[in-house]
Write a structure and sequence with these properties.
Largest interface: A-B, 71 and 71 residues
Number of helices of chain A: 14
Largest sheet of chain A: 7 strands, mixed
Distance between the termini of chain A: 68 Å
Shape of chain A: elongated
Order of helices and strands of chain A: EHEHEHHEHEHEHEHEHHEHHEEHH
Number of strands of chain A: 11
Strand content of chain A: 15-25%
Radius of gyration of chain A: 22 Å
Oligomer: homodimer
Structural class of chain A: alpha/beta
Strand order of the largest sheet of chain A: 3-2-1-4-5-10-11
């Protein structure tokens, strides 16, 4: 059976790391340990770059203790890359594979990594070179198509929800206007998670802005003033990728460097500029609406902590990321197929559970998935309870807090 | 015995919240439950402001479940304040106490709160009004005098250490220059905690800057370039209160608002401006030193998450904060004394433990405690192992990670 061709395997990690991306790596290592068809398991350093530079490390025979520690370590243990391979680059990868008798390729990453896997897979097919390619999803953005959700998202959502849960208590203790800027260039999945800790109507976040719902500066200021009038304070969760009424990213207007990544996107993360801009806009605008009232306004940009904070992963996310790695190997062994591991949610909506299935690489590559309309309120400044039902199980549960009457 | 005078008690919380400040509140509530001398236990809303406005809530008879949830809730459940009472304000407080037969005052806060407690105590003494006043220490800054360490610090230190532990893995996966700005206006205790997750010589933070060791922009850029040359990346932990070679706060030069607090200090927290400034300084300066090399530079400002993140407190800190609350009540009951609860570290430096003792209010009020010289390296850009021995037990332990060779 062609799925069982004998040879070596390569596993790599790509894109922005998560706190469970090494769970998937360990899942691959564990599953490969039981595969006679795979002789060597080579980890490529820094994703595709490590393949073309032939920087490999042998991953068979690592001891159990190290695997356990690795699985609990944030960020890509093999190293990651932002390289987005073009056709020439992919050809080089394929040549390295052919030269090293690599017959299995497992690539842990987002939609760009799925696309890279797809291109290499097509090159192999065109040359009648037997290569089983599996993409293993990971992204805190939760924006991959086909799958119900993405490994990495549940932990980031737990982090954001816990941060806002605590920040809301802080804001209640010392009231004012607080702006929290959360990762998410095109999709609001992670920002939406800021609402998961809300219990009472007066709890923050009082406003949530996501890229899927445009917001003008005028509306933003008006919204904040309204909530401040109602609650004596206002906690705002805003995606780094929010867009103004014309569809222009607010961040693009305020980022100091204008630095662009390999995809031509302006750098939004790793700077507090958008938070500071929103804070200043609120301070000036809301004060004016409230007759010159002096306001305490603060901004936090959650930054890289959302994707790399150690010791606070979601147990559900950890288990699922491990499973995704194992399943990629099982699927590659089971038949003459390539693809991406995807999750299907099981059950009646009460008990949470998933099963894995094989998605086509082309269906996961490139385009991404926005937050659906039913998760955004009619005013475009809040998140619905339907989203909570979707996202809460992925966090593995949030801290339970108490309040004085 | 005068320590047992019968009457009511007031408890309040003040200053920047921590994730364990409610543990101390619950400690007071629990200990008061066993005191016949205390008739009513009144919680004042928003610290001293709630006293002068007579906004009290009754804290006797709260159910066990609520107390447990409260104890695990970040930030001051009674509300906090930044008010720094002058003599008139303190007189008003005293008058409210006298009118309501308040004979016990427990104030959870930092050095300013200790000073407020001291002044009120002196007013009472001058009027021969029997009042037992106890300050219960709390601050993530860890800068109170007399005590070995402060409730609130261990949890904030655990947060910062875990954030940097993960961020360092992120930086190793996608190398570049990363700046992390950490709270601490005058003292570097919390920034120093960034080094607690370091295991190997190549681990970050590669540079740590604290207010106690001045650093010029030239030295900063030179240091970063040197580490980048050595490790191919550089992770920097910098206090928000770092000072230049002339003793001027870097933050004062770069903060957008210039807003000052009630103590006349310029606002440093709640903005990403210092991080962005340091990132730009590194980007321009280091690139120049390295012959125009294009550098990936990012900055994160940990912000309010350090003091309010839910669900990740240090178990040691939680237990000690609870104990501090209980001990304040015990000390007040035990004799005719006022003071501040302080910790003494026990043992031979191997097994960690503390015992509580009574410090004088005047010895804790006002002045603060800097990071001692022996915790800062000779170059003024790093933290010594002696600090690790001091601080690690307070975190209750950090995540254990693994790395590939």
């Amino acid at each position: 059976m062609s799925g069982r061709i004998r040879g070596n395997a390569v596993v790599g990690q790509s894109g922005g790391p998560t706190v469970v991306i090494n769970q998937s790596l360990v899942g691959v290592i564990e599953a490969v340990a039981g595969c006679d068809a795979i002789e060597r398991l080579l980890g490529c350093r820094h994703g595709v770059r490590g393949i073309v530079e032939e920087k490999f490390i042998d991953l068979k025979g690592l001891d159990r203790g190290l695997l356990d520690r690795l699985a609990n370590t944030p960020a890509a243990a093999l190293g990651s890359t932002r390289d987005k391979p073009d056709a020439d680059y992919c050809r080089k990868i394929f040549e390295v594979f052919a030269r090293n008798n690599v017959r299995y390729f497992f690539y842990i990453g987002g939609n760009d990594s799925a696309d890279t896997a797809r291109i290499i897979n097509e090159l192999a097919a065109a040359e009648s070179y037997e290569l089983r390619t599996f993409h293993i999803p990971k992204t805190i953005d939760n924006d991959l198509r086909v799958t119900d959700h993405c490994p990495g998202y549940g932990s980031a959502a737990k982090f954001v929800a816990s941060a806002i849960l605590g920040d809301d208590r802080d804001s209640a203790a010392l009231p004012g206007i607080k702006i929290d800027v959360i990762m998410g260039r095109h999709a609001g999945w992670l920002t939406a998670a800021g609402m998961l800790g809300r219990q009472d109507e007066c709890d923050g976040p009082h406003l949530v802005y996501v890229p899927e719902a445009r917001v003008s500066q005028e509306k933003f200021v008006h919204d904040v003033a309204e909530m401040y009038g109602k609650y004596g304070r206002c906690l705002v969760a805003a995606s780094e990728g929010i867009e103004d009424e014309n569809g222009q990213a607010w961040g693009a207007k305020v980022m100091p460097t204008g630095e662009k990544d390999s995809h031509g996107n302006i750098q939004l993360s790793g700077s507090g500029a958008l938070g500071d801009y929103l804070a200043e806009a609120a301070k000036t605008g809301v004060s004016k609406l409230l007759g010159g009232k002096k306001l305490r306004v603060r901004a936090d940009t959650f930054g890289y902590l959302q994707r790399s904070f150690a010791g606070y992963a979601s147990a559900v996310d950890q288990a699922e990321a491990r499973l995704a790695g194992r399943k990629a190997v099982e699927f590659a062994m089971a038949g003459n197929a390539d693809g991406s591991v995807a999750f299907k949610r099981l059950g009646d909506g009460k008990a949470y559970g998933i099963e894995c299935f094989r998605a086509e690489l082309k269906d996961v590559a490139r385009e991404t998935k926005d937050l659906p309309k039913e998760y955004i309120n009619a005013a475009g400044n809040g998140i619905t309870e339907a989203f909570r039902a979707y996202a809460m199980p992925l966090t593995g549960g949030l801290p339970v807090i108490g309040k004085l009457a």
